[in-house]
Amino acid sequence: MKLKILAAVTGLIVLAGLFAPWIAPHPPSGLYETRTLLAPGTEHLMGTDELGRDLLSRVLYGCRVSVAVGLLGASVTLLIGLAVGIDAGLSGRNFSEWTLRGVDLFVSVPDILIVILLAQIVGNSVAGMGFAIGLVSWPKVARLVYGETRKLRHEPFWESAQVVGAGLPRLVWNHLLPNLRATLIVVFALLTASSILTESSLSFIGLGINDPFDPWGTSWGTLASAGWRAIRGFPHLFFFPAAAVALAVWAMNSLAEEVRRHYEQKTGRAG
Amino acid sequence: MRRQLAGRLLFLPVQLLAVASLCFFLMRAIPGNPFEGERKLPEAVLKNLEERYRLSGSVAEQWWAFVGGTLTFDFGVSLKFRDREVRDILLEAAPVSISLGLSAFAIGAGLALIIGVTGAACSSSAGLRWWDRLGLMFSSLLIAVPKFLIGGLLVYLFAFRLRWLPPAQWGSPAQAVLPALTLALPLAGNLAILVRTAMLEALQSHYVRTGRAKGLSAFRLIAVHTLPNALHGVLAYLGPVFATLLTGSFVVEKIFAVPGMGWQFVASVLDRDYTAVLGASVFFAAVLIAANTLSDWLALWIDPRPAAGTGEGGR
User: Fold this and answer.
1) Helix, strand, or coil here: A54?
2) Terminal Cα-to-Cα distance of chain B (whole angstroms)
3) Chain B residue numbers touching A245 (CB-CB < 8 A)
4) Given an 8 Å threshold on Cβ–Cβ distance, is B149 in contact with A242?
5) Measured between alpha carbons, how far is B51 from B255 in angstroms, rounded to an integer?
6) Alpha-carbon distance B149 to B155, whole Å?
7) What predicted TM-score, i.e. pTM, was given to this entire model?
8) Which of A220, A142, A141 is nearest to A188 (CA)?
9) Cα–Cα distance between B248 and A163 in angstroms, integer?
10) CA distance A204 to B254
11) Is A120's CB within 8 Å of B269's CB?
12) A271 pLDDT band (50/70/90 cuts)?
């Protein structure tokens, strides 16, 4: 039951981002000169900003950007992590394993510091932020996949498959990935949440997405950053976008926790 | 065990060097030139400028000079504040961040202990389970809510509505309350869950059952017998905890205009202040490497079993 509610909330957030252009009540850059800085009301559910733009519409369009960064960051992290983890786990001491060892050198550097520097290089766009986050956070996934792969490699079903002549692609696709599925779903939800959190924090301090002339240049963090300047007199400009981040991250974290519990009950496995 | 520690100690400079080099090459790869905004400069002036800011010669030469500077804690002159050494800027900002971080740690750890311990203690009794549930919900909420929202709520409520505390700036104890709380609350959420799990596990032990059988009070059983044992496991997380405190300072110092390391770093990145960004990055890394090593040692000192390799022991 809880699982379904959380899945619905997460789904709604993603859909709201996806369909922002169709469900937004006003154009996000539509200026109403006579309606600047309105408090939330019936006409504008979240109020308007200093240029008379409808905040609800801007939050919906911001949802599209934030969720895109979250999904992209999680996908890049997962793909690199899977590739390196499986490669290192299946073959003995090879390039991937040494790469993983090398990455341990940087374990003490906070991720966000490198994300900031990387984002300056690849650009503060949706793609840039997503890749910067992915390029920095994959080692954790790689280590997880590496451990699971090494465990599965010695299971009887794995050896039987090898005996009957299954090739490497078949082993990975039919035997490895289905066994990792539950873990990967949970990890993907957690990664999406943490990517959204990282991006919005960076955009809030001015090191993330901010391009008012690009339809993909305003995220929840950007909106919160702009709202921060007026928080004293017009708190709605700050609190609505900031609360949107909190809701999305909380829903995705809780969904991951519920999915983990669900699989545990199904397989009767603890921990 | 001593050999293990010595090995790790030798590894530290290698680690620091790797981190410093990574930051150096990332910084060089960032597009933009610190001198491009100004009027067209004569060749000779540009050359002098590059020499002053260690931008002359090949990238390899620059890297070598940077590594040498790192070892002697000399990062050159700031590009933004032309007459100031990066070292002086860092030494000015670091105490601010350290006192903010330590007060946040004290508040966060205190809250986490209260929530985690009482939660675990209440989890097995039907009548009090709601308290455990509440604690868990509170913790997971604190983890999900971005720091800028926590800070925004605190400022709006306590500075603008109630007018109890100043909204920003740094100097007086009253000005430190809100930033320290903002930094402490997410930390409390994370730590509370760790403490609760460790306590639940420790409460399953035989010595707890024995203690209960011989009639110890619930308070004595938890505070004297269970808690110290449960905290072993939590100690290993102190390194990552310091990492979250440091990176959290980026947002918190920006919100409250606190002139610390995080604020300095963000400003330097925005200004393309190469020397200051590099200095701050290396400084962050050095502090974290030191914190990680210290927390490893502390864990080993309190519980030498994993290093000595003598199985489970008195559980």
Assistant:
1) strand
2) 22
3) 146, 149
4) yes
5) 37
6) 10
7) 0.89
8) A141
9) 52
10) 9
11) yes
12) very low
